[in-house]
Amino acid sequence: MKRIVIFASGSGSNAENIIGFFQTKETAKVTHVLTNNERAKVLERCKRLEVNSLVFDRETFFKTDEILNFLKKEADLIILAGFLWKVPENIVANFPNKIVNIHPALLPKYGGKGMYGNHVHKAVKNNNEVETGITIHYVNEHYDEGAIVFQAKTTLNEEDSVEDIAKKVHELEYKHYPKVIEDIILSE
Ligand code: GAR
Q1: Angle, alpha carbons 121-147-79 (nearest 5°)
Q2: Which positions are catalytic residues (predicted)?
Q3: Ligand 1, atom 17, residue with closest C-alpha
Q4: In the chain, which end has fewer C-beta atoms inside a 10 angstrom radius, N or C?
Q5: Contacts for 148-153: CB closer than 8 Å, 24+ residues apart
Q6: Secondary structure of the chain in HEC code, one letter for each residue
Q7: Percentage of the chain with pLDDT > 70?
Q8: What domains does the chain contain, in order, with CATH numbers?
Q9: Any long-range contacts for 73-76 (C-beta under 8 Å, 24+ apart)?
Q10: Each residue of 75-100: pLDDT tens digit?
């Protein structure tokens, strides 16, 4: 049974979906959710789902080994689900191919610093893209540049609003992210 630690900064709907998926599985379970945001809705979800949570601040994350040491003890796989800070080098270096992120677009398009959540969907809309999608990838020391594990696409219409695009992308995320995580675990 592998131990998954999730990092999330906001709503945490993906985190909840992943927690639920592994509740009935023998392969893995989500043991903790870590967040940089003490007001994140994901914390309410953790309470309701009875999953441990931990809030950390910038200083602790970037200037100490506290989170690294926690992960060394507690995590077999680290899953980023709407986590908005860059993962520091000490953590990346200690978890090669053990940190996985989901990006709400078809990388390498619409990636990089500042490209998260609705900023991505707005850019996709402004460029009149006829499709968008999700990218699940390993995390390295550069934003959104690690090896791609999986992509899925959805078509867009001119009438789709930013919210419509976000909804289509979220649906792909809910459908695929837990399964791709399980495939990664099973292939080890
Ligand atoms: C998700 O769409 C995820 O792909 C995106 O944030 C959203 C979080 O939603 N991540 C990024 O933009 C990372 N660059 P959630 O909190 O409801 O899971």
Answers
A1: 70
A2: 103
A3: 13
A4: C
A5: 148/107, 149/100, 149/180, 149/184, 150/176, 150/180, 151/106, 151/107, 152/176, 153/106
A6: CEEEEEECCCCCHHHHHHHHHHHCCCCEEEEEEEECCCCCHHHHHHHHHCCEEEECCHHHHHHCCHHHHHHHHHCCEEEECCCCCCCCHHHHHHCCCCEEEEECCCCCCCCCCCCCHHHHHHHHHHCCCCEEEEEEEECCCCCCCCCEEEEEEEECCCCCCHHHHHHHHHHHHHHHHHHHHHHHHHCC
A7: 100
A8: 2-186 (3.40.50.170)
A9: 74/3, 74/5, 74/31, 74/32, 75/3, 75/4, 75/5, 75/31, 75/32, 76/2, 76/3, 76/4, 76/28
A10: 999 999 999 999 999 999 999 999 99
Give the model's pLDDT for residue 5: 98
pLDDT band at 188 (very low <50, low <70, confident <90, very high): confident
Q: How far apart are CA 42 and CA 52, in angstroms?
A: 11
115 CA distance to ligand 1 middle (Å): 10
CB of 7 within 6 A of ligand 1: the answer is no
